[in-house]
Amino acid sequence: MPVTIRDVARASGVHISTVSRTFSAPHLVNPETRVRVLACAEDLGYRPNRAARALITGRTHNIGLIIADIANPFFPPLIKAAESQARHRDYHVFVADTNEDAAAEEELVHALAKQVDGVLLCSPRMSNSLIEQLSREVPLVVVNRQLAGLPCVLMDVGQGARSAIEHLAGLGHREMALLAGPRGSWTSRELRRAAGAAARAAGADLTVIGPNPPTEAGGLAQAEQVRRAGVSAVLAYNDLMAIGLLEGLDALGVRVPQEISVVGVDDISLSRLTRPKLTTVATPTAAAGRTAVDMLLQQDTDLPRTARGGGSTVAVGVRRTTAQVMLQTELVIRDSTGPGPYAGRERPGAAAAGPGPHRRADPGNPIVAAGDVVAS
Amino acid sequence: MPVTIRDVARASGVHISTVSRTFSAPHLVNPETRVRVLACAEDLGYRPNRAARALITGRTHNIGLIIADIANPFFPPLIKAAESQARHRDYHVFVADTNEDAAAEEELVHALAKQVDGVLLCSPRMSNSLIEQLSREVPLVVVNRQLAGLPCVLMDVGQGARSAIEHLAGLGHREMALLAGPRGSWTSRELRRAAGAAARAAGADLTVIGPNPPTEAGGLAQAEQVRRAGVSAVLAYNDLMAIGLLEGLDALGVRVPQEISVVGVDDISLSRLTRPKLTTVATPTAAAGRTAVDMLLQQDTDLPRTARGGGSTVAVGVRRTTAQVMLQTELVIRDSTGPGPYAGRERPGAAAAGPGPHRRADPGNPIVAAGDVVAS
DNA sequence: GATCTCTCTGCAAACCTTTGCATTGAAGTA
DNA sequence: TACTTCAATGCAAAGGTTTGCAGAGAGATC
Q: How far is CA B96 from CA A2, B107, B139, B326, in A?
């Protein structure tokens, strides 16, 4: 029933190798033959069997996309962009969800390693050393985590946090809180580091609350804690938590932004839909997905995984590209931030007015922070 | 470099066929041998090459998941549930996004057909006849569309629409509008049919506005139209459109629910986060994902796609299961619906009080509407 | 002790494609 | 005409696994 290369060969009166070349090396076959073969293939509805092809070429033309939580609205735009980009380059994408579980991540990489040409690890929760170890098993590109020696796509949340803190300080806030994200999150650490430094520079205090699950429930659960902390502004690990916090504060009768200002991170689509609309640090998730796929495929074409005659050829001079790409973030000011208790008064230390919101760079136009080629 | 079955065979001193059986038919191999082989495999980090396995068995252990729009929050829970269910059964999931485009759907099914054991078509936009045609190429399970002769997973939006209309009528609304979904959507037609009938039964008028893109923008764009329609209640194709409508009405200064009541469909997570919180018809998306995968895999194990000796064996008695599963929906009443202009007055026709909100059946406990086995 | 049964293992073909090498035949050159 | 060159095609091996069949023992039965 399934039509194979042999059927096409028979129909068009040539050898199967000619049919094969018609698809994979068209310049090697006579134009007349080529059109005849293509016509027959079209007629019969022939599609090359990718499993057979993979078996001999060593490339599956599949990539794996490992996601902490598909239901977290941060990820769908990334998945969508990655899938689209991959498809343009004739790759298909396995999507797998780990439920924020480090062990599941590891198992998934193992399970996928043999049947994909590379894996995109998005916001991994496992340890750096484990990631490095796994990267020896299958080409890896990491999103939202910085690892020396591995290709990474990062969003400049540090800059985002700085902008957010400066925005809040400029509004007259001195007592701030950071609603931290999950343990093991690079973004959360980065946020904490940058926000802490920015707060210090602005003469403000920053209380860290967490770690917390990066969900609406995680934010909701800390509303009471936030109120008790006596702060007038909160920067949340992500929009989901910020929105949960908004809900929680609303339930406690705390008005936003009159009593407490709230800033999120990500700019997921619903952050425009809450009341008040959420001020947030927009992260270029779609661009990250596209870029990560590009880097993975680039890496993939670099190392010729030649299976043919594998026994004798020693893997010498295999090169790994370890470019790290940092994508710009942008503070989007909406209605969840307002004047703080020190509004109008002179701020101790730091410049008078913080810089305005950051303009995002051309979308999809990444800024390469570091790029080098290392022989391994 | 990649460790194959041959390496394991050598290490454990048995033939490769014994190693193979250790994994795919353990009962055929001596327990002692088995543990030794497993130990060696573990040691070497052996994972069977699924491409090679697929080549001979004819099963890839992959399934395709074709989604109209990953970024539409309706889908991620479905994707997540489907992926999880598939993985439990040792299947991996290709996810592909069609951007609501019928042509993309067709091309995607073709591209995937040869490298998956089956395809889940979620909320397809293409024609019934095309779906039927494609179903001869690869086992298909369709979600959110009813097709005779094909396995379908449906959500009872008809019942949902009825509940919603009765709820609105019970609140004293007589002039209602339906914000229709995209052309080609079975759900939209079904909604229209059921809502129309329910409105008639309740002595209310129903104006249909649309078709519209099933997005927030689609709802937003029709706010003016809705106001001009002079209705006091609107049922939207989905929550996203309802939320867009909420925004649009807010911008026009129309108060919800005081002036216009709004009901959505889906109960996506953000419908609890809008102000006012959205009244909506909850659809069991996760259960749908799980069920669809189960049906696909069931179908898959039914038809033995034996490749061995393919030339001579004629495909006789191939059976196709065409069970159709209908999942219950539930009206969730929140704050976007309120008393209408005829509140308190006696309603013409129909029973006095509509039934209360529907309780959802046990989650994941589908009600089989029709199940039969057809020889083809 | 011969025969039968049964469990376990090995052998080898098959799945579909790619690709290095060999072959063919025509065109170009001396 | 005899030779080289080159484009186009065919040949066959290889890739990693599964599986029908057959063979080798061991144990049971008479």
A: 23, 11, 17, 25
And the tokens for B351?
Answer: 């029973």
Contact residues, chain B, for A240 at CB < 8 Å:
none
**A324-327 and A205-209 beta bridge pairing:** unpaired
Pairing of strands A140-143, A119-122: parallel
DSSP B105: H
Confidence of residue A369 (pLDDT cuts 50, 70, 90): very low
- Among B50, B133, B306, pick the best mutation site for testing chain A contact (most A Cβ within 10 A): B50
Query: What is the C-alpha radius of gyration for chain B, rounded to an integer number of angstroms?
Result: 25
Chain B, 149 to 178: residues with Cβ < 8 Å from chain A are none
What pLDDT is recorded for position B23?
Answer: 93
Q: Are B95 and A93 in contact (CB under 8 A)?
A: yes
CA of B117 to C1' of C14 (A): 20
- Is the entire prediction scored with pTM above 0.70? yes
Q: Which residue has the tokens 């093991």?
A: A184
What H or E segment, with its residue span, contains residue B28? Answer: none
Question: CB–CB of B86/B94 below 8 Å?
Answer: no
B210-255 pLDDT, tens digit per residue, is 899 999 999 999 999 999 999 999 999 999 999 999 999 999 999 9
Sheet of strand B279-282, all strands in order from the earlier edge strand to the far edge: B205-209, B175-179, B233-236, B261-266, B279-282, B330-332
* pLDDT tens per residue, range A104-136: 999 999 999 988 999 999 999 999 999 999 999
Residue type, B271: S
Ordered by where they begin, the domains of chain A are 5-48 (1.10.260.40), 58-148+286-301 (3.40.50.2300), 157-284+327-365 (3.40.50.2300)
Residue of B nearest to A47 (CA): B114
Parallel/antiparallel/unpaired status of strands A175-179 and B324-327: unpaired
